[in-house]
Structures are given as C-alpha cells and as structure tokens.
Design brief:
This protein is of the alpha+beta class. The protein folds into 2 domains: 1-43; 60-249, Sortase, Chain: A (Beta Barrel). Helix content is 28%, strand content 19%. The protein contains 4 helices and 8 strands, in the order H-H-E-E-E-E-H-E-E-H-E-E. It has helices at 2-42, 65-75, 156-161, 200-213; strands at residues 79-84, 91-95, 120-121, 133-137, 164-169, 175-184, 228-234, 242-249. The protein has an 8-stranded mixed beta sheet with strand order 2-1-5-6-8-7-4-3. The longest helix has 41 residues, at 2-42. It is globular.
C-alpha cells in the first residue's frame, strides 16, 4: 500500500511543480510582451525640438502635445495623456473610458486582454476644464512595472530624488510636484472620491488629511485653486490598502 501512495504523491508533486513552472513562464512571457509593446508605443512619441527652460513649458511656442503624442492619440482615442517620472519605470500612456470605468485595468493599449493593463484615470475626472483632482490607477506589479515603483516613495530619500511627475494631457504639458505619500484603506479615507471641491474648506480638508497621513513632510504647500493629481495602487501591508501619491500642478493651468 505504501508504494502506490508514494507514486500518487510523487505524481501530485510533479503536477504541482509543472503548474508552478508554467505560471512562472507565463508571468515572464507576459512581462516581456508588455515591455516590447511599450517600447513600440514610446517609439511613436516625437521628441521635442528643444528642452524647455521652465518645467511645464512647451519646448517651443509652436510645439504642442499633439506634435509629441499625436500618433498615439490617433491610434487610440481613449488616451487622454502621458505620465512619466524621470529615473523610474513610469513612462506610460494614461487612458480613460467613462462608460467602462475599469476597462484598462485588464486591457492593454491595443484594447486586448492584459494582466498589466494601462494606467487609467477615474471615470468622473475631466481634463478640460481640468478637475480639481485627477485620480490615476494602475497595478502594483512586483517587478516594479506599472505603478509598482510607487512603493519606493515610502522612502523620503527616494522622494527627494524623484519629487516631480510629468503628466501631459490633450490640453497641454503639465508638471506636478508631490505633496504627500501615504497608505490607507479607502474605507477609512475615500481619497478616490475627491474630484472637485465645493469650496475652499472642502479642498483644504482633503489636503490636510493627505498630509496628515503622509510618511513624511515634503514641504510642498498647496492652496484652493491648485490642480491636483492622485496616483493610486495596491499596498500589501494590509488587505484592501492603497498606496497613494498626491501632487499639485506647477504654474497653474
């Protein structure tokens, strides 16, 4: 009786090993395909003719976001902009589908199924005229891809080296400076529901809650009338947690 039992256990272990190996292979293949896809996408961005002197300025008075990202806007009308953080893996299009809020959670730029998805803006945010806050979601990939790199913002030293986020939209170029980084359960603080402030008090309350939760003081202040951007991804120290990075637009609209 022991020998058949041993054979059965050996077969089960072999099947489990083969399944785990397949899942690992599938994960690396998906990551490789995703990297190749984004290389193709970024290859369609036209480099600006010159470097702007001030953050958020057009490289030249005639140069527009359509000169830079026009091919991608035309390829997929769901694209509303491009987000990038120098020195990190964040360099992606930003999508929005108001009638299908989480479509790009599991679809790529070509609208095909993807475990990685594409960063996307909340359905109730608008870029023209810009909402008081635009929330952008993306996966927390263990490889550091998508918004996985935001995990590094728990370190103040990392923040000091990467305090600026570039977020260009169909309406123009935009540069944002980070004002707070925190983790929270949305049940405790519905940060993702803040879109437009009814008045100064509501705006100030939102900012105060964000800065109170922040891992550290960035020293960056903001006031009613500023435009904000909130990056949101999963945070695994507690079930349901989110890692949140809030930034304000420099130079006004």
């Amino acid at each position: 009786m022991k020998k058949p039992l041993f054979i059965i256990l050996a077969l089960l272990l072999t099947v489990a090993l083969l399944f785990s190996s397949f899942q690992l292979w599938r994960y690396f293949m998906a990551e490789r395909e995703t990297e190749e896809a984004y290389r193709h996408i970024t290859g369609q961005i036209e480099p600006p003719p010159s470097v702007p002197e001030q953050p958020g300025e057009s490289p030249t008075p005639e140069w527009t976001v359509y000169d830079q990202y026009g091919a991608l806007f035309e390829q997929n009308p769901d694209m509303i902009g491009w987000i990038a953080i120098d020195g990190t893996t964040i360099n992606y299009p930003v999508m929005q589908t108001p009638d299908r809020p989480d479509f790009y959670l599991k679809h790529n730029f070509e609208m095909q199924y993807s475990d990685y998805g594409v960063p996307y803006a909340a359905e109730n945010c608008v870029i023209d005229p810009q909402s008081d806050n635009i929330t952008i979601y993306s996966h927390h990939m263990k490889s550091g891809k998508m918004f996985g790199v935001l995990e590094n913002y728990k370190s103040e030293a990392f923040y000091r080296e990467h305090p600026i986020i570039q977020f260009d939209t169909r309406t123009g170029f935009g540069v944002y400076e980070i004002i707070a980084v925190f983790k929270v359960n949305p049940a405790d603080f519905k940060y993702n529901e803040f879109v437009n402030a009814a008045d100064r008090a509501e705006f100030d309350e939102y900012v105060c809650r964000c800065t109170a939760l922040s891992f550290y003081d960035t020293g960056v202040s903001t006031e009613y009338g500023d435009k904000l951007m909130t990056l949101s991804t999963c945070e695994y120290s507690r079930q349901g947690n989110r890692l949140v990075v809030v930034a304000k637009k420099m130079g006004g609209d």
